[in-house]
Recover the amino acids of this structure.
């Protein structure tokens, strides 16, 4: 084995061509000097010229080069046969897995001259590897285009695994250390509690969703991230891992804000002409000024009523845009829930008497004061009472209850139950959406704008409260509101151009 | 001509349909009425004619209602004249509007939400009629 000089190699090659291995001869610098025809088939070369003079390492995939180099050194130094398995690249860039064994040939003084490397193609494992590599590459590209990163948190060992896009989203170098505490420093201060709650909720409930703001460490620009997570548990429901995604939605939030500002502007513009219609209709209807016939007055009244409906809708649209743009002023003061409820109820005395509705009030004694904005609180009561009274037929019953919520800490529970038309089951999930009015409501009651409950829901969201209901068609509905003793306004706007 | 009740109202409003409707109704209630179509004209007429009460719009060309009110309150007579703001801007929708309240208008009314009748009632209230 040790004494074969270079020129006796051809006979060696002749013998070896019968075997399915490929044989390379390389010099002590790993430069390929000779090779047999099997290597052409294995690696896809047309002829020797394509590869002679190149380094053997050029054929090896990057991650495995270090191992091959160290094996090479072992062969040179220890003068033993040495082999390993690794991944190699064909001429067309596709991968193959090889088993390579090398042994050194020395001269009569024992100085290494060249190394023969015998290569077996053991690729059956490789198509999987290639597929995985290719899938990873495509995923990384897709994530980069979409500004969408995915992450994995090993809860037990507190280790994080991030895709490339995550580092880009957070403006961190791919070598940066990542853990929950270091990341919290980049979250906008007002949103940190929400992020903490997002993580603990994900562990408790199994999944969670959150929009929060991130402050770019380089530029200090604020970006909106939409984050989702899923927790994986062991058999004893111990949390093991959390996987999730982060999506940069700053652009979407900005567009949304622009749309809302446009809505606000358009609604404002409409008020002038609407005022002109209303005032002129009002003058026309004054008997002493215009002497209209009863028929004429009827038509003018229709115009006037329709115009007032538009005014109500534009008012609601303006309220919605102010809430969504976080321009609704919030001036907290200590208020008695019961007093405010009674005050709002007074506006409905006339219609309650007209419709002969039985309105019952049950207020707990000893209720603490609530600390919130009076206008917003009145809006909530107004909408609930208005709905209950409007959608209950004559001689029906409405009951309003205010108490401390037994199931939540430091929270009021307001309930308003009516014996009215109810909400059909198939429409119930849309009740809080914009411009929604149930089919049966539209038939029975002309006035609604379809925005009232959406506004109440927005007000409550901004204050940490909740609203829900139960309802049965033709039996009635009960709406519930949970309001913290001290509602905390949560801002949700983005400043454009930050 | 002079079956007026002796009270002179200055209407400062740039939208003519609205201005005309107010003139008609106030005249009907026997107020003497003068008008201005923009803030500059409004301030001039106020200081020249010393009306009993001013109905003031906010969004106007040449000078907006807030600037007018500020200048008005700096005048000795203007300091105390009753002003009812009639606008279609939401209160507090604009930071500047909060500043108006510093200059003490008697009332702030949103035109699209009030009837002419209600405006007359307010005027009568403010003037203790």
């Amino acid at each position: 084995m040790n004494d074969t000089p270079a020129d006796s190699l051809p006979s060696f090659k002749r013998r070896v061509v019968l075997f399915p291995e490929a044989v390379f001869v390389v010099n002590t610098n790993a430069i390929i000097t000779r090779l047999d025809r099997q290597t052409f088939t294995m690696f896809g070369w047309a002829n020797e010229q394509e590869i002679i003079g190149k380094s053997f390492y050029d054929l090896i995939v990057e991650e495995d080069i270090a191992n091959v180099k160290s094996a090479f050194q072992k062969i040179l130094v220890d003068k033993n046969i040495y082999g390993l398995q690794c991944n190699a690249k064909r001429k067309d860039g596709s991968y193959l897995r090889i088993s390579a064994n090398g042994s050194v040939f020395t001269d009569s003084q024992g100085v290494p001259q060249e190394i023969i490397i015998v290569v077996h193609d053991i690729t059956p494992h490789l198509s999987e590897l290639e597929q995985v590599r290719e899938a990873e590459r495509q995923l990384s590209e897709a994530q980069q285009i979409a500004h969408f990163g995915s992450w994995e948190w090993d809860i037990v060992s507190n280790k994080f695994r991030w895709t490339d896009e995550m580092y880009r989203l957070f403006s961190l170098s791919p070598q940066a250390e990542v853990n929950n505490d270091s990341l919290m420093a980049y979250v906008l201060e007002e949103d940190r509690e929400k992020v903490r709650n997002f993580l603990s909720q994900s562990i408790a409930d199994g999944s969670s969703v959150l929009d929060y703001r991130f402050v770019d460490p380089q530029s200090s620009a604020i970006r909106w991230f939409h984050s989702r997570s899923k927790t994986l548990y062991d058999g004893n429901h111990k949390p093991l891992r959390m996987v999730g995604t982060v999506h940069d939605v700053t652009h979407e939030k900005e567009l949304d804000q622009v749309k809302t500002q446009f809505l606000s502007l358009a609604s404002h513009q409409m008020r002038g002409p609407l005022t002109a219609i209303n005032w002129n209709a009002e003058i026309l209807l004054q008997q002493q000024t215009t002497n209209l016939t009863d028929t004429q007055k009827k038509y003018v009244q229709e115009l006037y009523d329709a115009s007032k409906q538009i005014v109500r809708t534009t008012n609601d649209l303006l309220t919605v845009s102010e809430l969504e743009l976080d321009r609704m002023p919030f001036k907290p003061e200590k208020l008695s829930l019961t007093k405010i409820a009674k005050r709002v109820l007074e506006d409905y005395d006339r219609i309650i008497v007209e419709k002969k509705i039985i309105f019952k009030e049950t207020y707990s004694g000893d209720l603490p004061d609530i600390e919130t904005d009076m206008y917003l609180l009145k809006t909530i009561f107004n909408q609930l009472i208005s709905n209950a009274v409007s959608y209950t037929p004559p001689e029906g019953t409405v009951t309003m209850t205010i108490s401390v919520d037994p199931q939540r800490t430091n929270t009021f529970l307001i309930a308003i139950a009516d014996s009215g038309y109810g909400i059909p089951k198939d429409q119930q999930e849309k009740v809080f959406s914009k411009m929604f009015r149930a089919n049966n409501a539209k038939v029975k009651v002309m006035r609604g704008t379809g925005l009232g409950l959406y506004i109440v829901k927005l007000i409550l969201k901004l204050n940490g409260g909740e609203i829900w209901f139960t309802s049965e068609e033709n039996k009635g509905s009960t709406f519930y509101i949970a309001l913290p003793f001290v509602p905390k306004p949560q801002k949700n706007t983005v400043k454009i151009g930050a | 001509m002079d079956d007026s009740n002796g009270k002179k109202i200055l209407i400062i409003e740039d939208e003519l349909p609205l201005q005309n409707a107010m003139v008609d109704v106030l005249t009907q209630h026997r107020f003497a009425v003068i008008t201005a179509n923009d803030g500059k004209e409004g301030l001039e007429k106020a200081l020249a004619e010393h009306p009993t009460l001013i109905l003031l719009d906010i969004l106007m060309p040449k000078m907006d209602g807030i600037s007018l009110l500020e200048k008005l309150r700096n005048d000795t007579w203007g300091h105390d004249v009753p002003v009812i703001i009639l606008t279609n801007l939401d209160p507090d929708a604009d930071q500047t509007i909060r500043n108006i309240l510093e200059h003490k208008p008697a009332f702030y009314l949103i035109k699209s939400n009030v009837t002419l009748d209600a405006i007359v009632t307010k005027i009568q209230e403010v003037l203790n009629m």
